[in-house]
Every structure is written in C-alpha cells, then in structure tokens.
Amino acid sequence: MAAAVLIGTLVGVLVDKWLGTHPWIFIIGFIFGAAAGFRNLYRVISMEDGDKGKGR
Q1: Residue 23: what pLDDT?
Q2: Are the C-beta atoms of residues 9 and 45 closer than 8 Å to each other?
Q3: What are the sequence ranges of the domains in the chain?
Q4: Per-residue confidence (pLDDT) for residue 45, from 0 to 100
Q5: How far is CA 20 from CA 3, 8, 9, 24, 41, in A?
Q6: Chunked in runs of 10, what are the mean pLDDT values of the chain (56 residues)?
Q7: In this structure, which long-range contacts are made by residues 3-11, counting pairs with CB atoms below 8 Å and at least 24 apart in sequence?
Q8: How far apart are CA 25 and CA 29, in angstroms?
Q9: pLDDT at position 42, please?
Q10: What pTM does this model have?
Q11: Where are the beta strands (DSSP E) in the chain?
Q12: Which of 8, 17, 41, 52 is least enclosed, having the fewest CB within 10 Å?
C-alpha cells in the first residue's frame, strides 16, 4: 500500500515540476496512489476471506 502511494506522489511531483503546475498534479497523483493502495489492500483481504471459506 505504501509503495502505491509513494509512486503516485513521486509521479505527481515530477509532472508538476515538468509542467509547473505545483501542487495540482501532486494532489491528483497522491489521490490515485492512495486509491491504488486501498484497492490492493482490499484484494489481499478478499483473497484471505476466500481461502477461509474453502475449508483451510
């Protein structure tokens, strides 16, 4: 989860420096990174719940 947030933030910072739009792309990158991190967390939790229902 942390990696997704860091990657989204880093991409946002780099694009902001390139385009001179600080802080807007940074904020968008952070939000997309956080969303990707929560999506990954949800997938991991869903997989664990699925394993429990199979009699393990």
Answers
A1: 94
A2: no
A3: 2-51
A4: 92
A5: 25, 17, 16, 10, 33
A6: 94 96 95 96 88 59
A7: 3/37, 4/33, 4/34, 4/36, 4/37, 4/40, 5/30, 5/33, 5/34, 5/36, 5/37, 6/33, 7/33, 8/32, 8/33, 8/34, 8/36, 9/33
A8: 6
A9: 94
A10: 0.80
A11: none
A12: 52
Tallying the residues shown for the chain, one arrives at 56
CB atoms within 10 A of CB 33: 22
The CA-atom distances, in angstroms, between 55 and each of 45, 48, 51, 52 are: 17, 12, 7, 6
How many separate helices (H) and strands (E) can be counted in the chain?
A: 2, 0
